[in-house]
Design brief:
Elements lengths: L11 H11 L4 E3 H8 L1 H11 L12 H18 L7 H4 L2 E3 H18 L14 H18 L11 H16 L2 H37 L1
Helix pairs in contact: 1-6, 2-3, 3-4, 3-8, 4-7, 7-8, 7-9, 8-9
């Protein structure tokens, strides 16, 4: 199913409000909700999934699960289609009244955040091609989040901030924030490279010690 969300300049708050107002009937499914919110909903979901990792050390194993979910959502953003998720989850009926209340509270928080974000450097966010490239960056950041180094300080934090900045910047068409997300991806790759070099150097030293 294709999502008609490409390159809208609608704010995340407006998208959430529109989706809430479009909910009808006593129940609503996740599939229907994602279709209503479109790209904003998927990006908002990516941002929410980063919250557990915004501290130097995260819970082991969680990054693999959440990183995989972020990758699936990012693939949906890149291909302009609903992400693949189990049908049992996508078609689960939820209480529309309770969900609308939660979404309205979330929308109010988003409105406050949006006061500090504005459309800038829109060549980075304002075209279909840019959205696809940024979606690929989200996939890369999600893959970095999945690297099993949870006990190493900042190994999850850096890619989590990259995802958070990319998601917020893309949803709000703020190219400056998106660039900050790219910078965090580069910082993550450099950090992992340093860790790999240190591990190699330590291993080489041990071999030399015992070999000598």
């Amino acid at each position: 199913m294709t999502i008609e969300f490409a390159d809208t300049r609608e704010t995340l708050y407006a998208a959430l409000t529109r989706a809430i107002d479009s909910i009808d009937g006593p129940t609503v499914t996740l599939r229907r909700l994602l279709s209503l919110v479109g790209e904003h909903g998927l990006l908002f979901l990516c941002a929410l999934l980063t919250i557990p990792f915004l501290i130097p050390v995260s819970i082991p194993g969680v990054s693999t699960v959440f990183g995989a979910a972020i990758i699936l959502v990012a693939i949906g953003i890149t291909t302009n289609r609903l992400p693949w998720l189990p049908d049992r989850l996508m078609d689960k009926e939820m209480d529309a009244v309770k969900l609308a209340g939660i979404l309205r509270r979330g929308a109010n928080v988003v409105a406050r955040v949006e006061a500090y974000i504005r459309p800038r450097a829109q060549a980075i966010t304002g075209s279909g091609f840019a959205s696809r490239v940024n979606g690929l960056a989200l996939i890369l950041a999600g893959s970095l989040l999945m690297v099993p180094l949870s006990l190493v300080p900042f190994s999850n934090t850096l890619p989590a901030f990259a995802i958070l900045l990319l998601a917020i910047g893309m949803s709000q068409r703020d190219g400056v924030v998106v660039l900050a997300g790219y910078a965090m991806i580069v910082a993550t790759i450099v950090y992992f490279g340093v860790l790999a070099w240190l591990a190699f150097a330590a291993g080489k030293g041990l071999l030399g010690l015992f070999g000598g």
